[in-house]
Amino acid sequence: MPTYIGLYKFTDQGIKAIKGAPERVEAAIKGAEKMGGKVIGVYVVMGEYDYVTIAEFPSDEVATAFALALGSIGNVRTTSLRAYTKEEFAAIVKKLP
Description:
The protein has helices at residues 12-16, 21-34, 60-73, 86-94; strands at 3-10, 38-44, 51-56, 76-83. With 97 residues, the protein is an alpha+beta fold. The chain has one domain (3-94): Alpha-Beta Plaits, CATH 3.30.70.920. The chain starts with a strand and ends with a helix.
């Protein structure tokens, strides 16, 4: 399955309800699984973003739907990155003219 990196920032709503964040993370993991995805890791980070996740989803469309669903709840703003393994990258480079 393709790999995705999610970058998340709390909204005002999300930071006001910070005590419920651990439960929301667990609910998001279960939601990803219901969509056919697999969350590999969730990290709370310091700096520009509040969370970073690594997950696999069956397709770009499913990953996008997941990010939209999370964002629509209102607790986080999302940025999604499609990640390629070094092997996938090598295969892409071989296709160059």
